[in-house]
Specification:
Layout (H helix, E strand, L loop, with lengths): L1 E3 L2 E3 L6 H8 L6 E5 L2 E2 L15 E6 L5
Parallel strand pairs: 1-5
Antiparallel strand pairs: 1-2, 3-4, 3-5
């Protein structure tokens, strides 16, 4: 199981890019942290999720 923003999901074997696309996230407006380290956007397609991973996904929101 992979924990995403505190919720467990069975995503082992998927890449970060696959998960984001499946979940409908706009990767251009996100920061993804995996096990305490920021995942560079250029590596979303090669970063494979493994059992026990913890992801935090933060969406950038403009304001004023």
């Amino acid at each position: 199981m992979v924990k995403i923003n505190g919720t467990a999901a069975d995503l082992a074997g998927q890449t970060v890019a696959q998960y984001l696309a499946q979940a409908g996230w706009d990767a251009a407006r996100l920061a993804v942290e995996r096990n305490g380290d920021i995942v560079p956007r250029a590596r979303y397609g090669e970063t494979v999720l493994e059992d026990g991973d913890v992801l935090e996904i933060v969406r950038f929101v403009g304001g004023g």
